[in-house]
Amino acid sequence: MKIAYILNTYPQPSQSFIRREIRALEAQGHEVLRFAMRRAEVPLVDAQDRAEEEKTEYVLAEGKAALAAALGRAVRRDMTEVREALKEAMAMGAVSETGRLRHLIYLAEAAYVAERCRAESVSHAHAHFGTNAATVAMLSHLLGGPKFSFTVHGPEEFDAPRALALGRKIHHSDFTVAISQFGRSQLCRWADPADWERIKVVHCGIEPEKFIDPAPLPKGPRRVVAIGRLVEQKGQLALIRAMAETTEPVHLTLIGDGEMRGDIERLIAELGLAKRVTLTGWVDEARIRAELEAAHALVMPSFAEGLPMVVMEAMAAARPVIATYIAGTPELVQNGQTGWMVSAGDVAALAAAMDSVAQTPLTKLSKMGMAARARVLARHDVEVEAEKLASWMR
């Protein structure tokens, strides 16, 4: 097949799962075109992200005149299609926080994308996230572009399902993807029951070949690593407070960056944790793997999630995981077998789990890590999941 991926901002450091999915589809013989609305606003540290940027066509970079011209050609091509797409755009704009004017811009973007897809003989379009990328994919379809699907990750989509018109998008889609059974259950809440059958589960995947020979757990003082954007939903402030409550001298490495970095740095200083917490900012995949190898466990203290890729990668690297009972995470992490599960926002429980990492014998930690590895490899192989996605596209 020739597939178009329709994305908002791509590539981004926190969305390597999209890159992996595209590569897996290409490895299976499909041709994938990348259409993003805009470039990332943060520096791309990873060479793989920079390579993806070179392969991506940026819609808004074409300029207002080009998008308006594409919409004008759509009117001349089939006014009935344009009326239907305009009707849907205005209906979505009426309930959206971004308003009707923004949805007219999405309509123009969709006209350009639909035109490019026809020119390239694209057979299917796929968007990631149920936000504006899915809106453009849907409107492109209504303007004579290819049939489309989109993947919903959460938690952002579940925070505003009506404003994002998820039910309308599901109805118009060829199929809709959730990344966990929990995610599917939430989409069923906002879809017409007649559309439930088109909601499928396709997991985000890891590349097993990158984790063929996981490093043994290191000897010495216990270390945990947390990876993710420094934003409120990731719960890092609770994690720093938990570090102050541990009774064991656990060291935390915090990988990532974001709007809450200043708050986190101030709290680290206030609690006197500068020697026990290391902030790295964004790093490439090689550095992430190195930090996982140096750690005894991953900690994911999130308040809201979809199903975190970093949890999968840590498990593939044979590291136990401390995570919170939210969204799709309990479908993967098994309390007492592959790690520790705690209630979101429970600082004392988070501290106790990190103390458990320090107090558990290395042999038992290693056994938990290998159980985690076996579980994630059985459930999240990117080749298997990409073939599921391709089968639904076919």
Structural commentary:
The chain is α/β, with parallel strands linked by helices and 394 residues long. Helix content is 47%, strand content 16%. It has two domains: 2-202, Glycogen Phosphorylase B (Rossmann fold); 208-379, Rossmann fold (3-Layer(aba) Sandwich), CATH 3.40.50.2000. The protein contains 16 helices and 13 strands. Strands 3-2-1-4-5-6-7 form a seven-stranded parallel β-sheet, sandwiched between helices. Strands 10-9-8-11-12-13 form a six-stranded parallel β-sheet, sandwiched between helices. α11 links the parallel β9 and β10. The chain starts with a strand and ends with a helix.
Question: How do you describe this structure in short?
Answer:
By secondary structure, the chain is of the alpha/beta class.
Q: Write down the overall mean pLDDT.
A: 96
- Which architecture of the largest domain would the CATH scheme give at its second level? 3-Layer(aba) Sandwich
Q: Let me know the number of strands.
A: 13
Q: How is the largest sheet built, in terms of strand order?
A: 3-2-1-4-5-6-7
Whole-Å distance between the termini?
8 Å
Q: What would you give as the CATH superfamily of the largest domain? A: Glycogen Phosphorylase B
Beta-strand fraction estimate: 15-25%
Number of domains: 2
Q: Fraction of residues in helices? A: 40-55%
Topology as H/E string?
A: EHEHEHHHEHEHHEHEEHEHEHEHEEHHH
Distinct helical segment count: 16
CATH class of the largest domain: Alpha Beta
**In angstroms, what is the radius of gyration?**
22 Å
Major beta sheet, specifics? 7 strands, parallel
Shape: elongated
Which regions are unreliable across 5 or more consecutive residues at pLDDT < 50? none
CATH topology of the largest domain: Rossmann fold
Based on secondary structure, the structural category is alpha/beta
